[in-house]
Design brief:
Length: 344
């Protein structure tokens, strides 16, 4: 792991790909190696601008990311794209086709694209996306683009990963966004109405004005300068408006750095993911053979009407707590083979 960390810090792309595969693995031995790798990379002092992107299906996220990423690469910046692909609820598989839709960006020497399956993780991102972002930063990338699987009220988890959150919308979104826009708009820093070209240009301008008016009704957040969050138009197809989007992203990130909100946001995100790791570790204890067998037995009682769901859950938690206490006492007991016991 120390050698892999050195290669990663030297901007070895193959080492980065291998490291992301390692942190995404669920094997116990791989999780231990991943933890060791991240410990070796701690304190490298490199920071990238993390940009989260979300939007409804068909809004053109991949097309926008390719055009936007190409524009950043042409400015001399190194860009990493972490595209999260939805996993099948039946088979658990993912297509991972985002990379094939970014053909030009894939070939650019300053770009790195990594599609990842969302697996069973909710919130629009994969469970280990945060660690993949840290690896990209260690590899020296200037900008990390995080594409979510889609948009909804729960797809705001990406806001806990990024420094600036972009929400992509299509012209004349209308009623299809009524059920989701409130939750996502409150988290968005910049709303970009994509496809502002051809016959849709006038419609995109009206949609942008509508959302600009809606944003003014939201309570201003302390981490935002005057005028943010804001809405603007762009066309990934014609590659117009992309420089304006980048200028606004830089203006927002620079203001947050100068006023201390950047460091506060990163610290709050670190606390959030610490709590997530604790919750995930507790849930992992339910995957032991004893826990699965006991839950199956109690589930049958609930299904037969012999016990209520609440009572069965409390009984299981009480048994789990008693079992953990017994294991803790056993760990504290002296080892009879440690040489302290007298021979007969």
């Amino acid at each position: 792991m120390a050698e892999l960390a050195e290669r990663l810090l030297a901007a070895d792309r193959r080492a980065l790909a291998r490291a992301i595969t390692l942190v995404e693995s669920t094997r116990h031995d791989h999780r231990e190696k991943a933890a060791a790798l991240l410990e070796n990379l701690a304190g490298h002092g490199r920071e990238a601008l993390r940009i989260g992107l979300s939007g409804t299906p068909g809004v053109g996220k991949s097309t926008f990311i390719e055009a936007f990423g190409m524009a950043l690469c042409d400015k001399g910046l190194r860009v990493a794209v972490l595209a999260v692909d939805p996993s099948s609820a039946r088979t658990g598989g993912s297509i991972l086709g985002d990379k094939t839709r970014m053909e030009r960006l894939t070939r650019h020497p300053n770009a790195f694209i990594r599609p990842s399956p969302s697996q069973s993780h909710l919130g629009g991102v994969a469970r280990r996306t945060r660690e993949a972002v840290a690896l990209c930063e260690a590899a020296g990338f200037d900008v990390v683009l995080i594409e979510t699987v889609g948009v909804g009220q729960s797809e705001t988890v990406v806001a806990e990963l990024c420094d600036v959150f972009l929400l992509l919308l299509a012209p004349a979104g209308g009623d299809e966004l009524q059920g989701v826009k409130r939750g996502i708009m409150e988290a968005a820093d910049i709303i970009v109405v994509n496809k502002a070209d051809g016959d849709l240009k006038a419609t995109a301008t009206r949609t942008c004005a509508d959302y600009a008016g809606a944003l003014r009704l939201l309570r201003r957040r302390p981490q935002d300068p005057p005028g943010f969050p804001k809405a603007m138009t762009a066309s990934a197809l014609e590659e117009s408006g992309l420089d304006h989007v980048w200028d606004e992203i830089r203006a927002l990130s620079d203001w947050r750095r100068e006023h201390g909100h950047w460091a506060e946001r990163r610290a709050a995100q670190a606390r959030h993911w610490f709590a997530e790791e604790v919750r995930n570790a507790l849930l992992a204890r339910l995957e032991t053979p004893w826990a699965r067998a006991r839950m199956d037995a109690l589930a049958r009682q609930v299904a037969d009407g012999a016990a209520s769901a609440g009572a069965a859950a409390r009984a299981f938690l009480d048994e789990l707590s008693t079992r953990n206490q017994a294991n803790a006492k056993q760990d504290e007991a002296p080892d009879p083979l440690d040489g302290t016991r007298q021979s007969p």
